[in-house]
Amino acid sequence: MSLRSGGRQLSFELLAGAGDLTADDADDISPRSLPDTTSDGQRRRRRRSKRKRGFRSPPIDEAASEGEQPRGEGGGDAAAAFRITDLRSAVETVCESSEPERSAASCVSYVGVELRQRTVSRGERVLAASAEDGASSCGSSTRESAAAAAVAADVAAAAWRPEANGGVKKKLEKEESLDWEKYMKENSNILGEVERIDNSPFSYFLGELYGGNSLRSTIAVGNEKKRQRVYNTMFHVPWRCERLIVAGFFVCLDSFLSLLTIMPARIVVTIWRVLKTRKFRRPNAADLSDYGCFIVLALGVASLQMIDISLIYHVIRGQGTIKLYVVYNVLEIFDKLCQSFGEDVLQVLFNSAEGLSVCSTDNVMFELMRFLLDEAIAVVAFVVHSFVLLAQAITLSTCIIAHNNALLALLVSNNFAEIKSNVFKRVSKENLHNLVYYDIIERFHITAFLLFVLAQNILEAEGPWFDSFLINASLVFLCEVLIDAIKHSFLAKFNEIKPVAYSEFLEDLCKQILNDKPDDRQKDLTFIPLAPACVVIRVSTPVYATLLPAGPFIWRIFWILLWSVLTYFMLAIFKILVGLILRCLANCSEKIISCGA
Asked: Which residues does UniProt call coiled coil (predicted)?
């Protein structure tokens, strides 16, 4: 026990005084000076570990061999001032002990005494000694020896810190900062070479040729969705839109012909029935509506007959304050306003007619007065609308007859103003539906204007005029078709509306033709042909007047009735053909759309 305790105390004294050893003492405790207490296998193992660690024996300072005191603050400590000879004697004492203790000591003797050479501040060499006391491990387990060795290593590491031993710290010198001006003076060619390379036109061209920007690098590569959008804009939307507009045009034409043929026929049949039975019955709502529309048409034609077209023509052409295309655009705006207001007025008139047809005898006077008031409002509204359309037709005729490219200016300003006002706006599917119907009505109004121009040329033109009229009329129609295609293509593109929407609009129009949805009138094409009919009748009567032969008044009345009957039958036949064709096309289109869906 005394040996174990003495060995442990010796071990801690060795670790505490390791920092104060001189070079002579370090030489004495070198592995070569220690007694051979290990076996050959342990010796070989120690050599291999030294080779792996790159161990080198520190050189022995001659001054240290002469017995100089060790450097450090703890040099005067009595507990640390031991000699290597005492360590050697302690180890020899352990080796001379009994066989079990010798074997235990040999188990931990491979740790041994290790000297390491370290470099510290100002080139001084110090010897770091870490030792494990083998004597303290005698009679104890290998686990206790390993714990003691770990504690000893920690103490030795803490003891050999420069701060603990009073060593002088070496302050790192600050690296010299880079002087850019000095560097540029020493290497003045660098920027010159770079500038020469960058400013070389040939090098720049080669750089752009092999690694420069291209359209492919600035534009994302498309996909099938983009391709379909391009095809929709160029082909599908224009085709389906034009098909819908043409179908709507014939629907408007059918309504126009019905106003001129079916409505007068119903009125004549009603009058004939009253004269035949000689009994007056209260008319139903349909008869009252026909009477109201006929009164509006007759008064509208009578009002336009009092207007001198030549006077309006010279006023529009002679004034230089407002350009012709500006006048046309203003009249077109009033035309759309009158369309909207006229639809409301006619609905109110039909409601009054229905109320008058079903009212009781006590309320007959009130309903009759309301019907007459609504009829007067309708007359005023449609007379104004007829005058607007007539002025618009006169303006177009003035542009066509003029020889200063006024027609081209009118088409360009009107059509591109229409594109600007519609294309760059957010439009829903329902608004697009109404916009298509406005385009259909506008197409029909342009046809009525061209009939007015044709009638004016028949009456007043001199020399060959028909070829010029055909060219101008074709130019107006082609521009209108082209502008409608562009407008709807980009409306569908910007608002992400698929071309199938126009097929749905066509399906609704076919149902309107076939009367398949009498209750749902919100999606119907609402066209009121009263104002265009007044204009057409107004410009047609002078043409028929030129066909009347000179003679007595009775003879002239006879020719007027004859031409009227012939015109009526001609329009009736035309109405039958248009109606039958529309029904056939509506049936076919509805079947095709149903199969496609």
From this structure: none
